[in-house]
Amino acid sequence: MLENDVEIKEEKKGDILVLQIKGRLDAISSPAAEKKIFDLITNGKNKLLMNFSEVDYLSSAGMRLLLRTTKKLKSLSGKLVICDVSANVMDVLKMSGFDHFIELSRTQEEALKQF
User: Fold this and answer.
1) Is residue 73 within 8 Å of residue 79, measured between CB atoms?
2) 3-class secondary structure for the chain?
3) Protein fold of 6-112
4) Rounded to an integer, what distance in angstroms lies between the CA atom of residue 62 and that of residue 45?
5) From the CB of residue 59, how many other CB atoms can be counted at a distance below 10 Å?
């Protein structure tokens, strides 16, 4: 994995697709991550759980990815929940007000129950 890359592992939990995200969500990595996520949505995956336990950095480009994903899923009666967010990434989400319209959960188990 390159320094600027983001890695996304997929795991099915019933009709929910869990995306284990690893790395930095920034201006360099977000476009590729967004393409992969939107391809999954286009292929019928509309219940997404993003596990952020290995996301160590979130920039405005990464937040834009979350916003676009949330809007796209809402338009398809789907849902996005994010879990296991580190303290510094959570600070970014709270300072930007994203914690008010993105569903967040402490653990993956709790997040799965939100669907």
Assistant:
1) yes
2) CCCCCEEEEEEEECCEEEEEEEEEECCCCHHHHHHHHHHHHHCCCCEEEEEEEEEEEECHHHHHHHHHHHHHHHHCCCEEEEECCCHHHHHHHHHCCHHHCCEEECCHHHHHCCC
3) Transcription Regulator spoIIAA (3.30.750)
4) 20
5) 16
On whether the pTM is more than 0.90, the answer is: yes
Q: Would you state the pLDDT for residue 1?
A: 46
75-89 residue pLDDT tens: 999 999 999 999 999
**Which residues, in sequence order, are CB contacts of 43 under 8 Å at separation 6+?**
none
Pairing label, strands 16-25, 47-58: parallel
Domain parsing of the chain, residue ranges = 6-112
**CB 105 within 8 Å of CB 79:** no
